[in-house]
Task: structure prediction
Amino acid sequence: MNCPKCKSAHKIKRGILNRKQRYCCKSCGYHYTVMRKKTAKPDAMKKQALHLYLEGLGFRAIGRMLGVSHVSVYRWIKKFGETLDSVKSNGNR
Result:
């Protein structure tokens, strides 16, 4: 994974914190961790939530079906909409 701050691929290991490998970017000196949180949901689940939303189900119904909070479902849908808007705005230039 590249540095989240400057997107450089030049990194070195800088110890372990809470059983997660830490890295230091050689370009900008930023320290970061690569591992995903255990609580993070897979992208397939997020895509399924989007599909169910487009089929007409509500946030609470989708949350009950997938076993997640309706607020999480709302945030996934909102984030997808924001990325879609940015793609539309870049295509109109």
